[in-house]
Design brief:
Blueprint lengths: L2 H10 L7 H12 L4 H11 L3 H10 L11 E6 L2 H5 L2 H12 L12 E6 L11 E3 L2 E3 L4 H9 L3
Parallel strand pairs: 1-2
Antiparallel strand pairs: 1-3, 3-4
Length: 150
C-alpha cells in the first residue's frame, strides 16, 4: 500500500488522532495486513507516537503485522461445533490449502484460523470465509465452499 492511499484514508478522517483504530482498520481491510511503513506513516500524519500505533496494532486481534491471505478462513472449534465434527472440517481445510491454523499460504490466497465460537452454535460445525458463515459443514462440502473463493 502506497503513502498516497494511506494519506487518503487519513484525510477522510480529518487527521484526527481519535480515528486511529478506524484508520488502521481501513488500511488492514484493503491491504490484509499492517506493514511497518504504514504504521510509521499513520503515526506521522496523525501526530501520534509510533509506540502508541504499534500498541494498538498488536493489542487487537483484528490487526495483523504479517501478510494475510486475500481470504480469511475461520473454523469454529467451540463445544457445539467440536462435537459435530469441526476437527474433520479443519483437517480437510488443511489438506486442501496446505496450511495450518495461524498460517497463510505462499500465494497469499488463504489464511486459516481456529476460533472458540462464531456465535451460531445451532449451525455447527461452522466455517467462516471472509465473514460469510457456512454452517452444517462436512468434509465433503469444504472443497465446494473454498472453490467460491478462487
Amino acid at each position: 500500500m502506497d503513502n498516497e492511499r494511506i494519506d487518503q484514508i487519513i484525510d477522510k478522517h480529518h487527521h484526527e488522532a481519535s480515528s486511529l483504530i478506524q484508520v488502521l482498520l481501513e488500511i488492514q481491510g484493503e491491504n490484509h495486513w499492517l506493514p511497518k511503513e504504514a504504521l510509521a506513516r499513520v503515526a506521522e500524519k496523525l501526530q501520534v507516537p509510533l509506540t502508541r500505533v504499534q500498541h494498538i496494532a498488536t493489542f487487537y486481534k483484528a490487526f495483523s503485522l504479517v501478510p494475510k491471505g486475500r481470504h480469511e478462513i475461520h473454523i469454529c472449534m467451540g463445544t457445539a461445533c467440536h462435537v459435530r465434527g469441526a476437527t474433520r472440517v479443519l483437517d480437510t481445510v488443511q489438506d486442501l490449502t496446505g496450511i495450518k491454523p495461524g498460517e497463510t499460504d505462499l500465494d497469499l490466497k488463504f489464511s486459516l484460523q481456529t476460533v472458540n465460537c462464531l456465535g451460531c452454535c445451532a449451525l455447527g460445525p461452522v466455517m467462516e470465509v471472509d465473514g460469510k458463515t457456512h454452517g452444517k459443514m462436512a468434509p465433503s462440502k469444504t472443497a465446494e465452499v473454498l472453490k467460491n473463493y478462487e
